[in-house]
Fold:
Amino acid sequence: MAFVHNTTTTTEFSITARLRAFVAQASANWAMNREYKRTYAQLSRLTNRELADIGVRRCDIADIARKHVHNL
Structure:
């Protein structure tokens, strides 16, 4: 006697699961955006002399903030 058990669940494709995934991704993106803005603002507040002391040019602040957020 054969017994078949379907392991595919319909909950993976439900609107509720998709909505939760969307909210989770939106929340993660929002958190990353806040961290980028915080890092950018902190570096922008430094004087040119302070930036030179740590080896950063003012034009590189956006790249540094993006790399910090995305762990590049």
